[in-house]
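Narrative progress, year one. The postdoctoral researcher (J.K.) led the effort to move from monomer predictions toward full complexes, under supervision of the PI. The following entry was the first complex the group processed end to end, covering 286 residues in total.
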Amino acid sequence: MAGRGPHERLYDSISSFLGKNPPSEIPKKWERFSDIAILPSGSFRDESWEDVVGPDFWKAVAQGLNVERLGVMGEVTGRIRKSGVKMLLGDDDWVVRRENGVDYGYHVTKCMFSAGNVNERRRMGEVVRRGEVVVDLFAGIGYYSLPILVHSEVEHIHCCEWNNDAVESLEWSLERNNVSSLCTIHRGDNRETCKSIGKVADRVIMGLLPTSERSFEAAMEVLSDSGGVIHIHGLAKPDEYSEWAEEVMTGICNFREGSRARKIIVNRIKSYAPRWDHVVLDVEIN
Ligand SMILES: C[S@@+](CC[C@H](N)C(=O)[O-])C[C@H]1O[C@@H](n2cnc3c(N)ncnc32)[C@H](O)[C@@H]1O
């Protein structure tokens, strides 16, 4: 019927597959890109769906969402921030996600991609000035490094990453976006790899939650002797951004004698949990 929205179309597709109305709630939102949709965790999990779900049912859901492949979200877990996405329909979990003119290729079941950080990815592509050297200590699949490489006139980026799946994705995306020559990947723990990078950075990115404090020393190790800007992500309570920023600035300055920190700004990225925001502090160190 004309004017029916995506939720109604999903409802219709499921109803027509079952020959009756769905036994309980169906998802109201999902992430859809390329030819895949990722359902929120817990979708179709209550017992009323037990006898219904299976390959043909997933095909009906995919049809309702106008995609070829289906996945379901899980929790992002563990020290390598492994994505908890599980495939429901389709064997191939490789996706290419295009955002702001950048192609990110990755395995959805192995790496995470936070759609909510879109503005921060765009911002990173805008703040870097011509000729800067950047060190991304938690590069992942290139969330922040790729927009910088594609949209700024950066001289070079050093990407640190210890998850091999993320490194493989990053390598693929560097080629795909034609920027490989501007990037060096340092595989392994950034607390070790920082030592071979040297004090080259005009800018350091620290995009790890809940905190990157265990790598504060590594950040100071790669920051140029003349100082630079560090983008430090973290979690803060909505009315306590300033206190959080002060603590972070004191913490990081401990790792370079005589260093001084000047807060540029704290930006909110998104809500992380009730009363906790994902924020990023831009701080100038000299
Ligand atoms: C959470 S991801 C980055 C997410 C990203 N900031 C976003 O916006 O979605 C952080 C990455 O840092 C990597 N990582 C964590 N600790 C590390 C360490 N000590 N050395 C190198 N890589 C590390 C993880 O494997 C992961 O790929």
